[in-house]
Amino acid sequence: MELRTEVSEIADWSIVTIYGELDVATAPSLRERLIALVGEGSTKLILDLEGVDFLDSTGLGTIISALKRVRTHGGDMRIVCTQPRIKRLFEITGLDRAVPLMPTLDAAVTGG
């Protein structure tokens, strides 16, 4: 399946809404998109994973890479994720302790 992303701005956050499968075949295009955003000065990212149907270890690696890049530039990242099977991957790997998983986009923007 194809991966599609949409980027929007709310307050001082760049929202990257992701649709489709985030896997070994599609992760490189997301990685490039996120590198470009940070390079353009977007250091506060919210990844909205509500439209993600599948996430593998390569997709998780892309998210970790983006988190490191954002934090290296003094920024922050939050993730919107309510799907149990996707949330479970974050919990198993401990990534839920490294980056906040938020129930809604509004909660991600406001930090609550």
Provide a descriptive summary of the structure in words.
The chain is globular. The chain has a five-stranded mixed sheet. The protein contains five helices and five strands; from the N terminus they run ββαβαβααβα. β1 and β2 form a beta hairpin. It has helices at 27-39, 57-72, 84-93, 95-98, 105-110; strands spanning 4-10, 13-22, 44-55, 76-80, 101-102. 44% of the residues lie in helices and 32% in strands. The chain starts with a strand and ends with a helix. The chain is α/β, with parallel strands linked by helices and 112 residues long. The chain has a single domain (4-102), classed as STAS domain (Transcription Regulator spoIIAA). α1 (27-39) packs parallel to α2.
CATH superfamily: STAS domain
The major beta sheet can be summarized as: 5 strands, mixed
State the separation between the terminal residues, measured CA to CA.
Answer: 33 Å
- Which CATH architecture would you pick? 2-Layer Sandwich
- Taken from the alpha-carbon principal axes, the silhouette is globular
Q: Averaged pLDDT, please?
A: 95
- How many structural domains? 1
> What is the alpha-carbon Rg in Å?
13 Å
- Summarize the amount of helix as a percent range: 40-55%
Short structural description:
This protein has 112 residues and is an alpha/beta fold. The chain has helices spanning 27-39, 57-72, 84-93, 95-98, 105-110; strands at residues 4-10, 13-22, 44-55, 76-80, 101-102.
